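Curious: why these numbers?
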Amino acid sequence: MFKLIPFDHQVWHGMLIYKPDQVQDLAKTYEKYLKSQNDPKAVAAIIMGCLPPTFDPVLTLIAYYEGSEEDGKRIFQPFFDIKPVVNRTSTKTFYELVPFSDILRFTYRTLLWMPWLTHLEGDT
């Protein structure tokens, strides 16, 4: 049996987009995030894609934090430090975010596990 509970507080979420030449910095930052992150309210994933109209390849960090923008940005600060070219993060209530669930389902289905990201040439 499931029990529904009210969820009327804010969530901070969105995308940080990087150029392909930032792959090593992004991978190293993501690896450190995975090893050190222990807040169950924070989730992140990296996807690769090509955005119109030029369809140039980009790297995208999908970030989600169940809490304030201030706390979300603090937890994900290392990803801001490597200078994303686009910041599409915002704060919404969870109910405002729900219409995006179809996009999130597509994102999770297309997420590729890329073990080479954590074993870059020259790393020790």
Observations:
- The beta strands are 10-18, 42-51, 56-65, 86-93.
- Helices lie at 23-36, 69-75, 77-81, 94-97, 101-110.
- The two ends are 49 Å apart (CA to CA).
